[in-house]
Every structure is written in structure tokens, then in C-alpha cells.
């Protein structure tokens, strides 16, 4: 993340009511583990040329050239903002890379375009209405880039001296009457005399000498940007962010760009506004559940946003909502989706499903392709993913093995490719990790064909398991036990 982007987002909590509480960085071991286990971590993008042509493999994606090119066109349309209010539907058999394609699209769009993934079944909550979940996802997929010019004091803290005086109101203790802060930039240093409330903010942000901070001149908000890199230590891994000494004067006008989504703004404004008194603190503790964002609130937020856009302060960045397993939505959700798609500020919608003809959920008699009512289907561009050849399965397995850091012995790839063709690509991929454990137990650092064979005896693929089930739908002629 660039320094400006970081500052922009960290300023969010002060200039707008949007909280940007960054999660603490994951520890090295969990980060390594999650990146290894995440099933799509080998997918880095669609792997297309600048003419939107798909090479047989690229960016971790093997084959599926038609679907990748189709998604490439959609990415171009989204980037040039000509795809809003429309939907792309990815259909195909299980394990043919639909979810992978959607994630590749998000990679291609970059971090600046909001991408909001969800699974169809997420709408079923006991607390929030189904349609509300959808509406919220749509709001989270519309970004707002706010540009502000602010007068700020920025620099590395060289001095931090609170100056205390007797408290006239109580006999005991002292209060801080003002605080002297020295700030240094490449160009020079400046000593500021600041209000005691700013000193509280300094303590809250845990600012010490050697940190790079900035203070907004008109609001007095203080932000810690990071530690000055003059203080950088020689550890390879640390949670601290080191930043260079700011350039220019200590006192300057600064352009801040900040990316939020309409969903962020709704949520921030729906939260009970915490007052100072004890009751409101208790109230906010007890109301820790989700508060519903009403339509009225959304309209208010829209009005404010429109004002910003008209003034040229903000720019709307329509993003993407991705609804995986879309057949899990029911008829109410589908009609609501139609309406959402037609609203003036709609993001692009990507849907994925592996169903053929299916009953539309929530109805008893409407069977339609992919379990999606025809009126919504009519609004979709449909892209089909194809099955994989044995060779392609082999390539995907190889890519995965590389990502997971597994070595394959002679013949293993061919064997897994066969398994993949007989069972499914997922099954072949799933055999990798347990086989590597077996290899480790045998004291080898590579997987052998015998490991795969043994795994095959222990585990069943979906087709074999289906074959084992008797005609009456149970084991051993209908009896389960
Ligand atoms: N063409 C491909 N190149 C590389 N990896 C692939 C490709 N297709 C699928 N994969 C990988 O195979 C696994 C299964 O694919 P994915 O989850 O995308 O399937 P899906 O079509 O979404 O299936 P389902 O309908 O069951 O949800 C994932 O780990 C995915 O990253
Ligand atoms: Mg999927």
C-alpha cells in the first residue's frame, strides 16, 4: 500500500464517521498457512494478453480459454463503466473453475474497484431480512473516492512535552494546559503549541518521539502514520510500519484521497451515536448485534453523496457483487435482485451456479434453468465453463503442488490426472495434501504413486461413493447400518 493511500484511509476515522479499524497483521505462521490452504491461492488473474486473448495457461489459470476471454471483456466493460446494472452468469459443472473465475475477475479489477463476494445461502439469517442482506451487499459494492485538501502539520516527532499547571477546580492533581510538539521534515523543523485535547489524542494513538504523525489544522485530529525509518530495526518481521521522513514543510496543504463504500457509510451512520454518559455506553454494549440500515437512512446517505459528487469532491466507483451458488436464493430474492439491478446506482453483478434445470427455491412448481427465474436469466450474459481434459487436470495439479510446496515423484502427476478425469478435478486436488502427509510419515520429501494409491483406498471420490449407494438409496439394500 502506498503511503498516501495509507494516510488517506487512516484519516477516515477523523474526517468522516467511517471506522477503518485495520486488523492486526496475522502472525507469520498463520499467514503462511492460510495462503497455503486457500483453494484458489494459485489464481492470480485471468492471464489474458492486452488483446483480451487467453493463452492456454496464464496467471495460474489452465485452459477454460473461452470463459476467461469472456470474463476479460467484462473486466474491460466494468473498468470503462459500461457494465453497470447488468449481470454475468457463470454456469458449469462442479469444480470447473467458476468461483476461481470470479476471483480472477476481482484480481484483474484491482483493489480500487470494490468487490463484494457472497454465497447465496448467506441471505438466510434469523436477524436480518433476506432482501436486506442483498441490499447491503450491493451497497458495499459501490465505492466512493473522496478527495479533500486539508491543511496539516506533518513530520517526525522530535519533542513531546506536556506542560502542566495546577488544576484550579480541584485541590489535587494537575492538568495539562498545553503541549509542545516538535515536528521535523526533510526541509525543516517546527515547534507547535497544541491544545490539551490534542494531547489526549496523542496518548490514545500511543505516539512517542520518533513517530511520523500529522495533525489536521482545523479539526485538531492527530494521526500516527508510522515509525520514522531512521528508527527502523533490523528485524525481518515486525508489525511496525516504517515510513520515510516527510518531504516539504511541516505546515502544508495536503490532498487526501480516501476510498469508502456506500455500505461503510450506511453502517457508520446506523450505529448508535455514542454519547459520553453511562447509559449510551451501556446501550452500545447491549446493542452489539446488527442494527438494520433503513431505506430512509440510505436515501439520506445518497443525498449527501450526491452533494459531494456535484461539488466535485467525490467520485462514485461502481464495483462488483459476486453471488456464488446463486440457486440458493429464493423467489423473493430473485425478484428483489431484478429491482436492484434496475436501480440507478447498481454495481455489476456476477452470479455462479452449477445447477441444471432446478426448482426455483420458494416455489413449488417453477422449474427453470439453473434454478433462476427466466426474467432474471433474461438480464444475464451467460458464460459456460467446460470440463477438463486429463492433461489440463494434470497441469492444475502441478500448479497447486507448486503453490503448496509439494514435490511429486515420477508418475504421480499422471496418476492424479487419471483420478481427476475419473472422479473430478477437486478430488485430484484434494488427494494432494493427505498424500503429502503420508509421504512425510514415510520419511520422504516427495509424494510417490503408492501414496496416491493408499489415499484412494482410504477416501472415495463422489462418483464411487454414489456408485456404492444401492438402488434404494441406502447402503446394503436400503439399510444404513
Ligand atoms: N482452469 C483452472 N486453472 C487452475 N485452477 C483451477 C481451474 N479450474 C478450477 N481450478 C481450481 O479447482 C478448484 C475447484 O474450482 P472452483 O471452486 O472454482 O469450482 P466451481 O466451478 O466453483 O465449483 P462448484 O460449482 O462446486 O462451486 C479450485 O481450487 C480452483 O482454484
Ligand atoms: Mg464454486
TrEMBL record:
It comes from the Eukaryota. Residues 1-36 are annotated as: Disordered. One of its GO terms (cellular component) is nucleus. One of its GO terms (molecular function) is ATP hydrolysis activity. Keywords: Activator, ATP-binding, Chromatin regulator, DNA damage, DNA repair, Helicase, Hydrolase, Nucleotide-binding, Nucleus, Transcription, Transcription regulation. Its main location: nucleus. SUPFAM superfamilies: P-loop containing nucleoside triphosphate hydrolases (SSF52540). InterPro entries: AAA+_ATPase (IPR003593), P-loop_NTPase (IPR027417), RuvB-like (IPR027238), RuvB-like_C (IPR041048), RuvBL1/2_DNA/RNA_bd_dom (IPR042487), TIP49_P-loop (IPR010339). PANTHER family: RUVB-RELATED REPTIN AND PONTIN. Its EC number is 3.6.4.12. Belongs to the RuvB family. This is RuvB-like helicase. Residues 1-16 have a biased composition (Low complexity). GO terms for biological process: chromatin organization; DNA repair. It is an enzyme of class 3 (hydrolase). It is found in: Nucleus. It catalyses: ATP + H2O = ADP + phosphate + H(+). DNA helicase participates in several chromatin remodeling complexes, including the SWR1 and the INO80 complexes. DNA helicase which participates in several chromatin remodeling complexes, including the SWR1 and the INO80 complexes. The SWR1 complex mediates the ATP-dependent exchange of histone H2A for the H2A variant HZT1 leading to transcriptional regulation of selected genes by chromatin remodeling. The INO80 complex remodels chromatin by shifting nucleosomes and is involved in DNA repair. Also involved in pre-rRNA processing. SMART domains: AAA (SM00382). Residues 84-374 form the AAA+ ATPase domain.
Amino acid at each position: 500500500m502506498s503511503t498516501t493511500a495509507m494516510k488517506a484511509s487512516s484519516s477516515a476515522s477523523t474526517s468522516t464517521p467511517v471506522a477503518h479499524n485495520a486488523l492486526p497483521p496475522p502472525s507469520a505462521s498463520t499467514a503462511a498457512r492460510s495462503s497455503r490452504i486457500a483453494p484458489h491461492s494459485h489464481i492470480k488473474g485471468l492471464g489474458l494478453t492486452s488483446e483480451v486473448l487467453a493463452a492456454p495457461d496464464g496467471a495460474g489459470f489452465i485452459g477454460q480459454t473461452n470463459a476467461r476471454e469472456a470474463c476479460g471483456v467484462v473486466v474491460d466493460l466494468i473498468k470503462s463503466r459500461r457494465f453497470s446494472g447488468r449481470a454475468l452468469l457463470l454456469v458449469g459443472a462442479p469444480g470447473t473453475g467458476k468461483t476461481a473465475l470470479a476471483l480472477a475477475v476481482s484480481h484483474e479489477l484491482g483493489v480500487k474497484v470494490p468487490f463484494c463476494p457472497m454465497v447465496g445461502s448467506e441471505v438466510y439469517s434469523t436477524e436480518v431480512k433476506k432482501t436486506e442482506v442483498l441490499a447491503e451487499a450491493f451497497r458495499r459494492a459501490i465505492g466512493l473516492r473522496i478527495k479533500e485538501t486539508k491543511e496539516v502539520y506533518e513530520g517526525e516527532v522530535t519533542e513531546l512535552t506536556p506542560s502542566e499547571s495546577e488544576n484550579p477546580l480541584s485541590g489535587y492533581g494537575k492538568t495539562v494546559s498545553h503541549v509542545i510538539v516538535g515536528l521535523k521534515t526533510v526541509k525543516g523543523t517546527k515547534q507547535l503549541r497544541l491544545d490539551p485535547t490534542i494531547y489526549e489524542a496523542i496518548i490514545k494513538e500511543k505516539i512517542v518521539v520518533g513517530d511520523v504523525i500529522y495533525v489536521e489544522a482545523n479539526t485538531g485530529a492527530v494521526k500516527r502514520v508510522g515509525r520514522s525509518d531512521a528508527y527502523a530495526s533490523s528485524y525481518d518481521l515486525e508489525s511496525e510500519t516504517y515510513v520515510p521522513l516527510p518531504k516539504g514543510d511541516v505546515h502544508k496543504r495536503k490532498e487526501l484521497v480516501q476510498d469508502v463504500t456506500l455500505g461503510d457509510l450506511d453502517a457508520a451512520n446506523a450505529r448508535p451515536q455514542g454519547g459520553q454518559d453511562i447509559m449510551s455506553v451501556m446501550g452500545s454494549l447491549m446493542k452489539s448485534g446488527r442494527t438494520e440500515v433503513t431505506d430512509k437512512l440510505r436515501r439520506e446517505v445518497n443525498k449527501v453523496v450526491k452533494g459531494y459528487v456535484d461539488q466535485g469532491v467525490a467520485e462514485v466507483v461502481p464495483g462488483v457483487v459476486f453471488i456464488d451458488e446463486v440457486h440458493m436464493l429464493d423467489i423473493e430474492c430473485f425478484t428483489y435482485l431484478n429491482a436492484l439491478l434496475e436501480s440507478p446506482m447498481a454495481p455489476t453483478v456476477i452470479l455462479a451456479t452449477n445447477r441444471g434445470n432446478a426448482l426455483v427455491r420458494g416455489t413449488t412448481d417453477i422449474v427453470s434453468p439453473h434454478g433462476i427465474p427466466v426474467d432474471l436469466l433474461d438480464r444475464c450474459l451467460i458464460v459456460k465453463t467446460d470440463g477438463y481434459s486429463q492433461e489440463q487436470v494434470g497441469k492444475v495439479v502441478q500448479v497447486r503442488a507448486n503453490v503448496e510446496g509439494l514435490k511429486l515423484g515420477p508418475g504421480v502427476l499422471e496418476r492424479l490426472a487419471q483420478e481427476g478425469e475419473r472422479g473430478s478435478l477437486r478430488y485430484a486436488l484434494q488427494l494432494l495434501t493427505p498424500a503429502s502427509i503420508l509421504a512425510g510419515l514415510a520419511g520422504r520429501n516427495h509424494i510417490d504413486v503408492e501414496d496416491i494409491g493408499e489415499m484412494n483406498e482410504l477416501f472415495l471420490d463422489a462418483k464411487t461413493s454414489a456408485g456404492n449407494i444401492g438402488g434404494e438409496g441406502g447402503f446394503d439394500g436400503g439399510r444404513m447400518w
